[in-house]
Design a protein that fits this description.
Layout: H1 6-20, H2 26-34, H3 45-61, H4 67-78, H5 80-90
Helix pairs in contact: 1-3
Length: 91
């Protein structure tokens, strides 16, 4: 049975974050990850890994829309009635 390597898993995720968010510094990532903990002296590797995974997931879910995407969303909202009518006709 392989022993969990929380430390190495955390390093791997930090490396993935460097690739997916190259302009964000390690300090910025770490600050955001441990923000809820305050004093991190007693945080275990396992707990840190969990916080890191949670942080990474939140970054992945935080989708940024381009200005044209936002304009399309607004226009669709303004024309919602016609869009719904078109969908009903397709059924």
């Amino acid at each position: 049975m392989k022993k969990p390597t929380h430390y190495l898993d955390a390093i791997k995720i930090l490396e993935e974050l460097k690739v997916s968010h190259p302009t964000t510094t390690l300090g910025q990532h770490l600050s955001a990850i441990v923000y809820e903990y305050g004093d991190v002296w007693s945080v275990s590797d396992k707990e840190f890994l969990f916080a890191l995974q949670k942080y990474k997931t939140s970054l992945e879910l935080d989708f940024h829309h381009s200005p044209t995407d936002i304009d399309d969303i607004i226009n669709d909202g303004m024309n919602l009635e016609s869009i719904l009518n078109d969908e009903e006709e397709d059924l």
